[in-house]
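User: For my dataset I need records formatted as: sequence, then structure tokens, nothing else. Please produce one.
Assistant:
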Amino acid sequence: MTDHEPATPRQRLWPLAVTGVVAGAIVVALLAPILRPHVFHGAVLQSDSPAPPVNLTTTNGANLDLSSYEGEVVVLYFGYTFCPDVCPTTLADVARAKRQLNSDEVNVIMITVDPARDTPELLANYVTSFDPSFLGAYGTDEVTAEAAALYGVFYEAREGSEATGYLVDHTATLMVIDTEGRLKLLLPFGVSANEIAADLEALLN
């Protein structure tokens, strides 16, 4: 074709086709993060049953009613205030994750597995030292054992040093209840604050 020959229909459509392909690629790239399902950093539970109720008291003096948090996310953690490393590390990571989300719809509750030493005042001071919104929950030895059994949590006191007194070996899993009140996600010890935040955000959305 010379400079004076008219373009064929195919030649005229070629720039439009290229433009369409480029535009389509851009749209796919923009939508990919939205369309791609979130990959959680722990075990996702498929049960539609509500999270098991527990007969515990919170550090604000109320009965712990997990069903009252519908529409929000609840992070449950079984631990104790004398824990030397695992509990403070875990709660610090959850606190950082909550600050990242900056959401009032994330509730964090630590259930003590050491009710003999963890008085309500001590437990309240401990959990709020990580985040003012954190709650503690406690009960008698029998009630604590029942709650732990419902959530598959192991704990057992063992001899410590003269300085620490006895220590408590315990399951260090974060248990996440979704906005519909279902126990939805189990996060193992060691997940990062960024990973926790990403999972909680996915459940909120």
